[in-house]
Amino acid sequence: xxxxxxxxxxxxxVAAWLETCLYGIYFSLFWFSVYINSRWTRNGHRPSQVMFxxxxxxxxxxxxHVAMSCYRMIRGFVDFGNASxxxxxxxxxxxxxxxxxxxxxxxxxxxxxxxxxxxRCWILWNRDYKFVxxxxxxxxxxxxxGVKVCTGVADASGFxxxxxxxxxxxxSVAVVQNIITTTLMALRLWLTERKxxxxxxxxxxxxxxxxxxxxxxxxxxxxxxLLLAFSSLNYNVQYILLDAMTPVIGIxxxxxxxxxxxxxxxxxxxxxxxxIGSMALxxxxxxxxxxxxxxxxxxIEYDGGSGNTGG
Length: 311
Fold this sequence. Notes:
Keywords: Membrane, Transmembrane, Transmembrane helix. 70% of the residues lie in helices and 4% in strands. The protein contains 8 helices and 4 strands, in the order ααααααααββββ. Helix 1 packs parallel to helix 8, helix 4 packs antiparallel against helix 5 and helix 4 packs parallel to helix 6. The protein is globular and about 70 Å long.
């Protein structure tokens, strides 16, 4: 039994309301991340400039998207409220420049989020390009499909088979990209966790970071899967998820950044230094015994941080 279609007028209202609520969360999270980044910098650390600039771009895109959504709602329900067909006569026209503008912003936000996930993978895997070849290829496919969707919407008066195919491809690649990059980052941290036990370092040091990555990406991935499903079935609820995705991508990116910085600050206050990618490590103690009398060369012993003095 097929699900009944959600009325388009209700769909656009709920979409604008949900995007505004999520943008409010993102607004607070973004400025909090700016604050803790500034504190991090004042303490002598150097946050990634790439990540910082990307977060600003994401915030700018999300702000422009929610502003345009509000403008479209005003035009639709005020200027076209008494027109033939009602607000839908304006809001459902996908070839209107305001709709195209929002589609372009959505595509840019998707590409920024995926690109930053690929960048994190590259950093965590010690800048080894072979681990990000597939994600980079998927990023290129996302770019091509996103451009095809935006140009197809500009030339179309409605959804045709070709445009629907490109939309489905774009959403499918986004889901696969999210799964692959999150898995690669979690795998790298898990392997590092296993290696750290050989040097008698704290076990479980990277497990919380894995949880941060997985938990923060879970909402984004869940919405991507729902969006792909509703888009494939051509349900109007997809428009609600489309508007929600732009701030959600920024929220996902911001949550990972904030939680990792806060954890790194906590580790630094307990004597942890060094990094793997952007993850702080614990200081390893070295005990050195140098005899004062004449004789053989001084003996240097390393006890792996156990605190025992050799000799």
